[in-house]
Design a protein that fits this description.
The complex is a heterodimer.
Chain A (H helix, E strand, L loop, with lengths): L3 E4 L4 H9 L3 E2 L8 E3 L2 H8 L12 E2 L6 H4 L1 H18 L6 E2 L2 E2 L8 E4 L3 H10 L5 E5 L9 E3 L2 H10 L3 H4 L6 E5 L6 E2 L2 E13 L4 E5 L3 E4 L14 H4 L3 H4 L12 E3 H12 L1 H22 L11 E9 L5 E7 L9 H18 L22 E6 H7 L2 H4 L7
Helix pairs in contact in A: 1-12, 4-11, 10-11
Chain B lengths: L1 H21 L1 H14 L9 H11 L2 H16 L7 H26 L4 E3 L2 H9 L20 H9 L28 H6 L10 H6 L16 H20 L6 H6 L5 H9 L2 H12 L5 H6 L18 H7 L4 H8 L14 H9 L5 H4 L15 H20 L2 H8 L5 H12 L5 H16 E3 H12 L11 H12 L2 H6 L7 E5 L8 E5 L24 H14 L14 H15 L1 H9 L9 H5 L8 H13 L5 H12 L1 H6 L3 H9 L6 H12 L1
Antiparallel strand pairs in B: 1-2, 3-4
Helix pairs in contact in B: 1-10, 2-4, 13-17, 16-17, 19-21, 20-21, 20-30, 22-24, 23-24, 24-26, 27-28, 27-31, 31-34
The chains are: A alpha+beta, B mainly alpha.
The complex binds adenosine-5'-diphosphate and magnesium ion.
Protein name (chain B): Rab-GAP TBC domain-containing protein
Organism (chain B): Molorchus minor
Pfam family, one (chain B): RabGAP-TBC
């Protein structure tokens, strides 16, 4: 049997990786085995009126309702619900101290606007000096984001955005999050991490973390003063924002590998704290996935690769900023291209059974070699069989 | 004989004392000793003993020992009959560089040095931590020279004529420069360097024969402190050269003080003496000894894994090296008494049989982070073990132990401290002040080399995804480096330097300065000597002193013509020899297409692989430079990489394509590569 693939992204990483495996490219109307689709295509494929039914030898790169994790408001909603549920169960994971969650405090305090406006104001009043960040729920690449440090600014913004003839068009909802104003700086600059996570199943949960990731640096020194509040080159780490700045360097694209970050941190801060940081990152990824697992329409044909945005503060605590369901596959530099090729290659190795033919009846337990640069984050099948899930990542107690 | 040696030791001691007195660290050490003297633990009626004891207790003694250890390292000097030839060549090259600097200046209509205006000063001061934003037009500047130019200089070196009768053969090709370099087998075998050990404390106890001056009333009179130190140094130094009889193993092997033995010892070279005495007395890299002084965990013999690894064991009975004994001594098992009758020469060759990069050549487990390994449990366990041991060594604060430790790989989290200890560059208040002073100089004067430095960082680190984040730190460090007159003072062969008039305020008296104060003119890629340190240190001043120590010990030898086994010429030669001997096919392939084999690697060697290897691997390589106190590992690695890419290299015939094969070193894993190559040889 010849394996066929289809893609509606014209990305060379996708095409060349599929061709390397001897797969044949076909159109969406043809018989395909692997579909690398955009989220829209995927949603319409799964919609009731499309009437499309996949057979056992077809797999596709999104879950039908991935927005449960990738929309900024839904992610927060799901995590809040997850914590509440655990708390009701009396699970020790949801323990609190000082009114904060001790183990699950990994997203900045966030409210959805306009819905939660009153709750936000109440929280705002507790610390009127702090800065907040406004982000449109459904957009990406840093667009529409701004910082506020006064309630009046928010009010003005809300008035202005409600000008009569925009009203119907742009009742866009926003999230407002506590701005992490003490980010870890290297060379004086703010950065965030892009970590890739592959999920091949939500129930049972099977997730893999890619060892190669990168830090995305701002091109301008970090400066928390009010004067720089509107300078997005200082505050937003998105490459799509930074590349428009005068200081952008296309040879390195502001990206430094996570291995090098780790080398630097271990060398300057020590092993224990660095290890703890990276363990906490894995921990927060696992719990963010567990938080959405109950609401994801699980489908054996689906797998998904997420791009996690994580900010580390200067106490070496990681914060989950957002999760992208279609992380950029565009390469900005030579190293970036190598990384994304590997990523794509390893994803296919994991989601395709050893036979080389996609098959949803497979138990989805890849061999050690197939993992490549991925590490098992959690596999509930394995965990149940061997009872040793605790040893996968030390210090994690997610059971 | 003994007397003569004592005299020379005495001489050296005086020299050490003089040098130490001049060093910056001495002031604080001396201050600390003075403080110690006024404490009750030092009694005036038994001044010397109580002082020594107190010094030992509060760690000042190890400070002193470390100073001596580092002093010996810096003074270790090889004399070669070609020294003056190389010195002349370097001076000639220095002058060419100066000329080209001067002509660049006159072309651009600028001066080499001038006083900065107030506004410019203030601008730099306010942007000190973000010098990227200090706008200077560097477009019109170009690097004074690049590795490729330096290679030309090296290739065109015309060695001295050794033998007049050879007449028409008078000119040496580069590869025929009359320098001796090691071959691979030498690299595997050479050198036991006995560790300065703790046992020597025993010896010191028995020697109270030097009179101590009048009792101190307030603090210690300078001369008296020194004489007490001097004595300590005498002992220290004495003990580092020959172990004192009375130690268990020595007694078995050496029959009392013997004139014959001394003669024999003096007949062979010093390195061999150390080796042989080490072996006879047990004070060398034997597990039992290493365990005693706290380096090794386990006295077990590394060859047979059965018995304790002691001198008698190795010399007489270890089953694993029976064949080696047979070859050297004519018998595979020896009676301990027989050892005394073995000729020294034989002992010497026997001892040479092992070691130099011994840890590498034995394929021992060395802690080296590479992707495939770093997640395994074995790695985690080994790392934990190394961290544990490393912390102990750091607590002992003893530099020679740090050097030993590095041989088997350094955990990332200890590297910065381990390097600082080894090099003596732990930061003290006077260092911070010194760094501030250098900064002040940068603020005050505008040197033409500043632009070269900025340009260099711009061309290298700023574009490199491993280093761009550290750009601003590098500006600070490199600018300060150029102002550091101590570098010029401490460089072994004084470079030719310029004396320039500072242009500036019209009415003031014309001032001159050494240009640049460090005497070092940066070449293209110079800042890469410092860049990797950014991974280890957050603070620029901490980084600075470790980098400077590295430069003074090693890096200067890589971009200046100098003789000696550590000089760039020998290193290049070593690379060529290795390649020629071990891969003649490849060698001929290069020759056939008129590609100078050195051309392919000169930038690796000149930059000690900085910017070529990924940081993790690079730091591992530099660990080894420190551990074996030798740069020879660099050409060795260069040759190995070439050899490992042989198949692909043989397929291409143009310089461009060959360079393409060698362009990406991101997959190189230093330790395994070296191990494979050196293991083959044993
Ligand atoms: N709470 C926060 N604190 C600090 N920085 C933030 C915060 N939220 C977002 N950012 C910055 O803004 C960038 C964009 O935010 P993100 O939520 O990822 O939106 P987008 O979908 O537009 O990328 C992040 O990469 C990060 O640098
Ligand atoms: Mg984002």
């Amino acid at each position: 049997m010849r394996v066929t693939f289809c893609t509606d992204l014209d990305k060379s990483v996708v095409v060349s990786n599929c061709e390397k495996r001897g797969w044949i490219q076909v159109g969406p109307e043809d018989e395909w085995n692997v579909y690398w689709a955009g989220t829209m295509t995927c949603r319409s494929l799964f919609s009731v009126d499309s009437g499309y039914r996949m057979n056992d030898n077809q797999i596709i790169n999104h879950f039908p309702n991935h927005y449960e994790i990738s929309r900024k408001d839904l992610l927060v909603k799901n995590i809040k619900r997850y914590r509440r549920d655990l708390e009701k169960e009396g699970n020790s994971l949801a323990e609190r101290g000082d009114s904060k969650y001790l183990h699950l405090d990994f997203i900045p305090t966030t409210f959805v606007l306009p819905a939660d406006y009153n709750m936000f104001v109440e929280e705002y009043r507790k610390a009127p000096q702090s800065t907040w960040i406004m982000k449109p729920c459904g957009r990406s690449q840093g667009s529409g984001i701004f910082l506020i440090n006064k309630l009046s600014k928010l009010k003005r913004w809300s008035r202005e955005s409600k000008t009569p003839f925009q009203q119907q068009l742009t009742r866009e909802s926003y999230v407002i999050s506590k701005y992490i104003d003490n980010p870890l700086l290297i060379g004086g600059k703010k950065f965030d991490l892009r970590i890739y996570v592959l999920v091949s199943s939500f129930r049972p949960l099977k997730a893999y973390q890619f060892r190669l990731g990168f830090c995305r640096f701002c091109t301008v020194k970090y400066d928390s003063s009010v004067a720089e509040l509107d300078n997005m080159y200082v505050h937003l780490t998105n490459v799509s924002v930074q590349r428009h700045g005068g200081e952008y360097n296309s040879l390195h694209g502001g990206k430094m590998s996570i291995q090098n970050l780790r080398l630097h941190l271990e060398s300057t801060r020590g092993k224990v704290v660095t290890e703890k940081l990276f363990d906490q990152i894995s921990w927060l990824i696992i719990h963010s996935l567990k938080a959405i697992a109950p609401v994801v329409a699980t489908d054996r044909h689906c797998f998904e690769c997420y791009g996690y945005d994580i900010i580390i503060d200067n106490n070496l605590k990681p914060w989950l900023v957002e999760v992208n369901a279609s992380p950029s596959l565009t390469s900005t530099t030579a190293n970036d291209r190598i990384l994304k090729h590997k990523l794509m290659d390893n994803i296919f190795s994991i989601v395709v059974p050893p036979s080389g033919i996609p098959d949803v009846r497979w138990n989805k337990i890849p061999t050690q070699q197939a993992l490549g640069d991925f590490e098992i984050l959690i596999d509930e099948d394995l965990a149940e069989n061997t009872e040793n899930c605790g040893s996968l990542k030390n210090g994690c107690k997610w059971k | 004989m003994e007397e003569l040696k004592d005299k020379s030791i005495h001489h050296t001691t005086i020299k050490i004392c003089e040098d130490l007195k001049k060093s910056a660290s001495f002031i604080s050490l001396f201050g600390d000793i003075q403080k110690l003297v006024v404490t009750p633990s030092v009694k005036s009626d038994d001044f010397k003993n109580t002082l020594l004891k107190a010094m030992q207790e509060n760690g000042l003694e190890s400070e002193l020992k470390n100073s001596i250890y580092r002093w010996i390292k810096t003074k270790r000097k090889e004399v070669s009959p070609y020294d003056s030839f190389f010195r002349k060549a370097q001076i000639h090259w220095d002058k060419r560089i100066h000329k080209s600097l001067n002509s660049m200046c006159s072309e651009l209509g600028i001066s080499l040095a001038k006083t900065r205006g107030t506004s410019e000063r203030e601008e730099i001061l306010s942007k000190w931590t973000e010098l990227t934003n200090f706008e200077v037009d560097i477009n019109k500047y170009r690097p004074v020279y690049a590795p490729r130019d330096f290679l030309e200089v090296l290739i065109n070196l015309r060695g001295p004529i050794r033998d007049k009768s050879q007449g028409d053969n008078a000119h040496w090709e580069f590869t025929q420069l009359p320098l001796r370099v090691k071959n691979l087998a030498d690299l595997v075998r050479l050198g036991f360097s006995p560790v300065l050990h703790e046992a020597d404390r025993l010896a010191r106890e028995g020697s109270a024969m030097y009179p101590i001056g009048p009792e101190p009333i307030l603090g210690v009179p300078y001369s008296m402190g020194v004489s007490a130190m001097k004595e300590l140094l005498t002992q220290e130094f004495k003990n580092s050269w020959h172990a004192t009889p009375g130690v268990r193993q020595a007694k078995t092997h050496i029959e009392g003080p013997s004139l014959k033995l001394t003669k024999c010892l003096l007949g062979i070279n010093r390195r061999d003496i150390r080796m042989v005495t080490g072996l006879l007395t047990g004070h060398c890299h034997l597990s039992r000894h290493l365990q005693l002084i706290g380096i090794a965990e386990d006295p077990e013999c590394r060859w047979c894994l059965e018995d304790e690894e002691t001198s008698p064991h190795v010399l007489t009975e270890c089953p694993a090296i029976a064949r080696v004994r047979e070859r050297h001594f004519g018998s595979s098992v020896l009676n301990p008494k027989d050892v005394k009758s073995i000729q020294l020469r034989k002992l010497c060759t026997f001892a040479k049989e092992r070691s130099f990069y011994p840890e590498l050549s034995r394929g021992e487990q060395i802690l080296a982070a590479n992707n495939s390994l770093s997640t395994t449990q074995a790695f985690t366990a080994l790392e934990a073990e190394r961290i544990d041991l490393g912390e102990k060594i750091l607590a002992k604060n003893y530099a020679p132990l740090a050097q030993e430790f590095l041989k088997k790989g350094c955990p990332r989290c200890l590297r910065a401290r381990m390097w600082s200890l080894l090099l003596g560059s732990e930061i003290k208040p006077q260092h911070t002040n010194y760094f501030e002073m250098l900064k002040e100089h940068v603020l005050q004067y505008d040197l033409m080399t500043d632009k070269l430095i900025i340009k260099d960082i711009n061309l290298t680190a700023s574009n490199d995804d491993q280093y761009f984040v550290f750009e601003d730190v590098l500006y600070q460090v490199m600018l300060c480096f150029s102002r550091d007159n101590d570098i010029l003072k401490n460089l072994p062969n004084q470079p030719a330097f310029m004396q320039v008039v500072i242009k500036g305020k019209h009415n003031s008296v014309e001032k001159t300065m050494v240009f640049p104060p460090s005497g070092v003119i940066p070449f293209h890629g110079f800042s890469m000597y410092a860049a990797p340190f950014c991974y280890l240190f957050d603070k620029p001043d901490e980084l600075y002193f470790v980098f400077r120590a590295f430069y003074l010990r090693y890096w200067h030898k890589l971009h200046r013509v100098c003789a000696g086994s550590q000089g760039i010429v020998s290193l290049c030669l070593l690379y060529e020899k290795l390649l020629q001997c071990h891969e003649p096919l490849l060698w001929n392939h290069f020759k056939k297409y008129h590609i100078h084999p050195l051309r392919l690697v000169i930038k690796w060697i000149m930059r000690a692989f900085s910017g070529h290897l990924p940081p993790e691997q690079l730091l591992t390589l530099w660990d080894l430079v420190l551990a074996y106190d030798s740069l020879e590992i660099i050409p060795l690695l260069a040759a190995i990489i070439i050899v490992f890419r042989k198949d692909n290299l043989l397929k291409v015939t143009t310089l461009q394509n060959i360079e393409a094969v060698l362009a990406d070193l991101s997959s190189v894993a230093v330790i395994p590569l070296l191990q494979i190559a050196l293991l083959k040889e044993t």
